[in-house]
């Protein structure tokens, strides 16, 4: 577990969360919903990168966090400093190999998701949700790599 306090971040100015079925169709739905929500909020970051990050996290949840009778949850939150928090929660408490950065198999389709998230500037952490699994969190700054908490970044002014 890398984020026991679940991070110290700027205050949340906009937030949306929803549950999705633990099925591959959830990946497409979360991409559509993320693109629509960030566009409606006029989030100043790269919406396509955020959508790709959501897609990777939801794909991981569907493949590694599936448990009968449960669903996954997606939370999007824009912070006062305009950073975006992307939380994907699933019912499995384990996160095998989180700290490892192995090379993906040659020609294989798996093993690239978290590396891609990091390459897009996402700061990845995770934490347990008592008796309910885990949440994988990515913090994405609107203009590139995330500044350390408490430093940098202009204030986000939501459109009214």
Automatic annotation (TrEMBL):
Signal peptide: none
InterPro entries linked to this entry: Anti-sigma-factor_SerPK, HATPase_C_sf, HATPase_dom
One Pfam assignment: HATPase_c_2
UniProt entry tagged with the keyword Membrane: no
Keyword Zinc: no
Domain of life of the native organism: Bacteria
UniProt keyword annotations, A-Z: Kinase, Serine/threonine-protein kinase, Transferase
SUPFAM superfamilies recorded: ATPase domain of HSP90 chaperone/DNA topoisomerase II/histidine kinase
Record-linked Gene3D superfamilies: Histidine kinase-like ATPase, C-terminal domain
Domain Histidine kinase/HSP90-like ATPase: 46-139
Protein name, per record: Histidine kinase/HSP90-like ATPase domain-containing protein
Origin species: Streptomyces chryseus
Record lineage: Bacteria, Bacillati, Actinomycetota, Actinomycetes, Kitasatosporales
